[in-house]
Amino acid sequence: MRTPARLGRTRLTAISGLVAASLAATAGMATGSPTASTDDGRRQLVRTASDDTSTKVVMVEADTVEKRNEVIALGLDATEHADAHGIEVVLHDAEDAKALREAGFSWKVKVNDLEALTKKNARIDRAYAASVAESPLPSGRTGYRQYADYLADLDQLAATYPSLTKPLTLAHRTALGEEIRGIEVSVDADNVKDGKPVFLLMGAHHAREWPSAEHTMEFAFDLLQSYRSGDRRTRALLADSRVILVPVVNVDGFKVSRSAAPLGNFSLLDYEMKRKNCSLSGAPAAFQTGTCDNNPAGRLRGTDLNRNYPGFWGGGGASPTWSNDTYRGVSPGSEPETKAVRALISERSVTVMISNHTYSNLVLRPPAIAKTGRAIDEPQLKALGDAMASKNDYTSQASYQLYDTSGSTEDWSYWITGGLGYTFEIGDEGFHPAYEEAVVGEYLGIAPADGAGLGGNREAYYLAAEAAADPELHSQIRGTAPAKHTVSVSRTTVSPTSPVIMPGGVVGDPILYTDTVGAEYVSTGGKFVLDVNPSTRPLVAGRYGRLPQAPTQAAVTLTNPAGVPAEEASEFTTFEVEGLPEADNGFAVVSISWPSTDPNAYDWDFFVTGPDGEAVGSGATLANPEVIRIPDPQPGTYTIEANNYAGGDAAHDWSGTVTFEAPTPPSPSGIKEAYLLSCTDKRGDLVATREVVVDRGEAVDIGNACKRNKD
Questions:
Q1: What is the CATH number of the domain that holds 158?
Q2: Per the domain annotation, does 93 fall within a domain?
Q3: Active-site residue numbers?
Q4: Is pLDDT above 90 for 43?
Q5: Is the CB of residue 234 less than 8 Å from the CB of residue 223?
């Protein structure tokens, strides 16, 4: 990758006439012209629907995390759809393409006319709804719900299954004062202080990601219908655990997106493509007029809720700029919707959580930022992620392997509470593509979904719910307590965000934030089991590693094929990586150099693919040597493409070696945090307190939890 000509970009009209243009845009949004905005003197891009050419979606070639982070840093309209080869970006006009080109990137067009594709999918949806009286989904629906449909379905399920459901309203209202609704599903659902572990499934943190809410709602129908039909698996699950479903977290934004006139071009006025909530957070005064669905900043006003959670807030992969689609908010956890979800997770024993999104066919696990280091529970996180991905044919990987993302839901939830957390990126084409594929097919695992025949997201959610109930994956506190006494555990901690990236790239100090997490059990008298997450936060517990089971492999000298390819052409060579029992390699380090003192005149680029044909690393800078580190290389044959980028000839040909390093050993911190366990009687008077330390997979028997403290 060439050194970018610029790492950021601004493009808009002169500042003069800002207020007048803003008011004019508010009055007549249909044909708005490019407007300018200021934020502490910085110019920001505000796009409109008046682009001269069709809006395109392109896959930018970026085969490393660093390159994908660089694409995001350019300030373009990234869709967040990414894989090991690159990241998709919306090109609104020639200026967008110029910015990519000047930064040294190339791309392939995936969608030549985004508006045309949107209209096509709308026609497909109308045809499907007209031709099918009832879909095979648990609800039988044939098209995307409006928000009122979600409320009606939640009410219907509560009325139809009164003993198995409890309507849920989260503790905080949205920025516009709406309730955030959900439903709890369990045997004896009203008894929320029953000590059971919880699986939490959520949708629509991002307003335009309609399938994420559909899948969440369908799983509620599925559980209840399956239980009533006598399905033994579901009956066992709901007897031993509780499932909480919140189909729409971003209520305000979702209502705007679902009711908007479709444009399909991601422009300023394309409210259907609104991603963020309806907060005024961070917006300059000139852009705070109007309503969420009709204002000078269009769909770009608001905060990205999935960049606002305090865990590692303020780092890479989120924007400090109010008008950016990934704007992180004014402070960690500032948004009411974020506060609502944090309160829910903090007050319940959420042992497994999935936040549904679209799109990329991915099951993502912590960490979301590479510098965080691999989670100490990486084996468990990976095993469950892989198992779920086997049911929907998604790729299971750590979130940072795509690009850094700070302030995400599962990163806060896992590192602070210890509950295993995941993001599902549903489907592989657009934020709300054709319903038959994105909802019916992906949920049930039937054609036309890619994972047809594997079980779909329905089966993946069942695996997650069963994992939530598995005591090997969380912790238990056992004991006895008199009837009508309440046994509770709590832990209050102070944690740092990421070092905060300021506008302009200056990095400030982390910000400290406080969390109190816990759970309650009301005793019926006698023995009890209180399912909780480990008392020690993963944030402080340490990082994952493993001890080597064999020596590392001997170094390999790479074979340079005969001859030299023409400039900009390539040649290929291979090397072998050994596995157990012969060798245990934590890293393969490819180092390739060539005779040269002028990197602009003589330059080679190298690209490595693994035994499965997937890209595992690249060296495409001006460095000499190019060094490529491959973590945990799988045994098999690796292929290196050597590209003669500039000036390579017989006198400036390459040579290289592959050396191997041992696995990184585990690095537990040795720190143990404790829950404060307390017992109160039926009058609410405190009877007893003590500290309890419990690890993942451990059950601690405390005896009589309400044995009075000695004076």
A1: 3.40.630.10
A2: no
A3: 425
A4: no
A5: yes
Q: Are residues 208 and 320 in the same domain?
A: yes
Any domain includes 531? no
| Single residue among 462, 477, 492 that ends a domain in this structure | 477
What is the count of structural domains for the chain?
Answer: 2
Q: pLDDT value at position 39?
A: 35
- DSSP for 481-501 reads E-TT-EEEEEEEEEEE-PPPB
Q: Find the domain containing 586 and state its range.
A: 556-665
- At residue 385, φ and ψ (nearest 5 deg) are -60, -45
Of 645, 653, 638, nearest in space to 570 by CA: 645
Name the band, by pLDDT with cuts 50, 70 and 90, for residue 384: very high
| 433 and 563 inside one domain | no
* 52 confidence band (pLDDT: 50, 70, 90): very low
Query: In a 10 Å sphere around its CB, with 0-12 CB exposed, 13-18 middle and 19+ buried, how is residue 554 labelled?
Result: exposed
Q: Are 440 and 560 within one domain?
A: no
CATH number for 589? 2.60.120.380
All residues at 6 or more sequence positions from 614 whose CB lies less than 8 Å from its CB, including other chains: 84
Question: How confident is the model at residue 710, as a pLDDT?
Answer: 65
Instruction: Answer whether residue 32 shows pLDDT above 60.
Output: no
Residues 295 and 202 in one domain: yes
Distance separating alpha carbons of residues 285 and 294, to the nearest angstrom: 15
| CA Rg value for the chain | 27
Last-in-domain residue among 477, 502, 519? 477
Q: Does 186 map to a domain?
A: yes
Do residues 180 and 323 share a domain? yes
Task: State pLDDT tens for residues 199-214.
Answer: 999 999 999 999 999 9
pLDDT of residue 11: 28
* Residue 479 pLDDT class (50, 70, 90 cuts): very high
Alpha-carbon torsion 245, 537, 313, 92, what sign?
A: negative
List pLDDT tens digits, range 248-269: 999 999 999 999 998 888 889 9
What's the pLDDT at 141? 98
Structure tokens at 690: 């003590």
Nearest to 403 by CA among 83, 124, 28: 83
CB 457 within 8 A of CB 483: no
Other Cβ atoms closer than 10 A to 648: 24
Measure the CA–CA gap between 630 and 259, rounded to whole angstroms. Answer: 47
Whether residues 464 and 566 share a domain: the answer is no
pLDDT digits (tens, 9 = 90+) for 9-30: 222 222 223 323 332 333 333 3
Give the whole-number percent of the chain exceeding pLDDT 90. 77
d(CA 541, CA 415): 9
Is residue 589 within 8 Å of residue 659, measured between CB atoms? Answer: yes
Residues 6+ apart with CB under 8 A from 481: 487, 521, 523, 525, 526, 528, 679, 704, 705, 706
Residue 402: its pLDDT value, please? 85
Measured CA angle at 174 (ends 200, 35), to 5 deg: 120
Burial class of residue 708 in the structure, from the number of CB atoms within 10 Å of its CB (0-12 exposed, 13-18 middle, 19+ buried): exposed
In whole angstroms, what is the distance from residue 317 CA to residue 82 CA?
13
Quick one: 292 and 190 in the same domain?
Answer: yes
Quote the tokens at residue 49: 């629907």
- pLDDT mean over 415-423: 98
Strand partners, 45: 36
Is 500 a domain residue? no
Residues 160 and 302 both lie in one domain: yes
